[in-house]
Amino acid sequence: MPNLLKGSKKLLNAWAFYDWANSVYSLVIASAIFPIYYQALFKVADITTISIFGGAIRSTPLISYTTAAAFLLVAFISPLLSGIADYVGNKKNFMKFFCYLGALSCMGLYFFSLENIHISLLFYFFGLVGFWGSLVFYNSYLPDVAFPEQQDRVSARGYSMGYIGSVILLLFNLGMVMFPKYFGFGEEEGASMQAMRWSFVTVGIWWILFSQYSFYFLPKGNKSEKKVTAKILLNGFRELKSVYSSLSENIQLKRFLAAFFVYSMAVQTVMLVATYFGEQEIDWGGDDAKLLGLIVSILIIQLVAVIGAVLTSRASEKFGNIPVLIVINIIWVGICIVAFFIEIPIQFYITAGFVGLVMGGIQSLSRSTYSKFLPETKDTTSYFSFYDVAEKIGIVIGMLIYGFIDQITGSMRNSILFLIIFFITGVFLLLRVPRNKNH
C-alpha cells in the first residue's frame, strides 16, 4: 500500500474522491429519487397517513422523525468509535464499515413498501447512519492529508467532485425513471416506480466501487501498539469531554462551534426536506411535470453548488472565512423568507439556484474553518467527532422541530419560516468569533 506524503497531489485527490463516491447517497437517496418514490407510495395507496407503532402519522413527519432518530444514533456512536479509532490507529477500517453499511442499506431500499413499513424504514435508517458515520472519519482525515493553507481548496474540491459525480448518476437514474421501457422496465403502469427502486441499487454499487480508490491511498491512521480492551469502549466519550474542556483555552474554536451548531441545524434541515417541500407545496400541474420539475430543481442545486463551493473558497482567501460565512447565513435568511411564499415552479427553480449557490459554500467552508482552528494534535478524529456530534445533535433538534410544526399545522411552509431564527442567531454568533487576517 502506498505511503503518500502529507500535502501530495495524489493523496489530496484520493481524499476528495470519496466525496465522488458517497455523494450519490445525499443526492439520489436523501434529496431526489427516494423522496419522490416515498411520496408516490402514499399517493398510489391513496392515503395521507399510515399506522405505525400503534398510532397514525402523516408521511412527512414520519420521515422527519426517522431521520432525526438516525442522526441521534450517529451522534451517540461517533465519539465511541472515533475514540477507539484514534486509540488503535485504524480509522480507515471504521470508515469502510460505515461505507459498506450505507451502500448495502441503499440496495435494501429496493424492497421499500408501505406494507412492510417497519423494515423499510430500517433500511432508510441504516443508509443514513452509514453515510453520516463514514463522514466522521472522512472529515477527520482532512488535517492529516492537507496542510492548513491547502484545506479550504481541497475541502471545496471534495464537495465539487461530489456534486459532479452524483449528478452523473442522477442523470442516468432520471433516464431510467422517465423512459423505463428503454432500460427494460416495460411500459406498463408502475414501470417508473420499478426504475426508482433499481436506482437505489445503483447508488450502493457506485458508492462501494468508487470508494476503493480512496481506501487504497488513504493512510490507515496513527500507528499504535495499544490493544483494544473493554476499558477503551468509553474512551471516545472521555476524549469528547477532553475536547470540550479544551475549548475554554481556544475561544475561536469554542465560539465558532456554537455558531456552527445553530446555523448547521437549519442548513441540514433545509437540505433534507427540500424535495418533500417541493412535492407537497408547489403546484406542478401534473405528476409527470412534478417528477421532471423536482429533478430539474435538484440538478440546478447540484450544478450551482459546484460554482458556489469554488467561489466561496476564493472569497474566503480574500475576505476571510468568518466574514464570508456571515454573508452566506444572511443569504439563507432571505431564501427561507422567499420559500414561505413560493407557489409555482419558476419560483421554485430560482430559489433552488440560490440554495445551490450557498449550500456547497457553507458546508465546505465550515469544515475547513473548523480544521484551521484546531490545536496541534494527532487525535484529529476526536476533534472532528466533536464537530460531527454538534452537527448531528443540531440536525436532530432541527428535524424534530420541523416535523412537529409540520404535524400540528399541516403545512411545511410554517416549518421553513421557523428556520429563519436559527440563521439569524448564527449570524450574531459568528460576529462574536475572534478573527485574524486569515480567518
Please work out how many helical segments DSSP would assign.
Answer: 16
Instruction: List unreliable stretches of 5+ residues.
Output: none
Question: Remind me, CATH topology?
Answer: Growth Hormone, Chain: A
CATH class annotation: Mainly Alpha
Q: How far apart are the termini?
A: 36 Å
How would you sum up this structure, described in words?
With 439 residues, the chain is mostly helical. It has a single domain (9-220, 233-431), classed as Up-down Bundle (Growth Hormone, Chain: A), CATH 1.20.1250. 78% of the residues lie in helices and 2% in strands. It contains 16 helices and two strands. It has a two-stranded antiparallel ribbon. A hairpin with a 2-residue loop joins β1 (49-52) and β2. The longest helix has 33 residues, at 287-319. The radius of gyration is 21 Å and the shape is globular.
Quick rundown:
This protein is 78% helix and 2% strand. It is mostly helical.
Topology:
Blueprint: H1 9-29, H2 33-44, E1 49-52, E2 55-58, H3 59-88, H4 91-108, H5 117-140, H6 142-145, H7 148-178, H8 191-217, H9 235-246, H10 251-281, H11 287-319, H12 321-341, H13 345-373, H14 380-409, H15 412-418, H16 420-431
Antiparallel strand pairs: 1-2
Helix pairs in contact: 1-7, 1-8, 2-8, 3-4, 3-5, 3-9, 3-14, 4-5, 4-8, 5-14, 7-8, 7-11, 7-13, 9-14, 10-13, 10-14, 10-16, 11-12, 11-13, 12-13, 12-15, 12-16, 14-15
Subcellular location: Endomembrane system
Keywords: Membrane, Transmembrane, Transmembrane helix, Transport
Organism: Aequorivita lipolytica
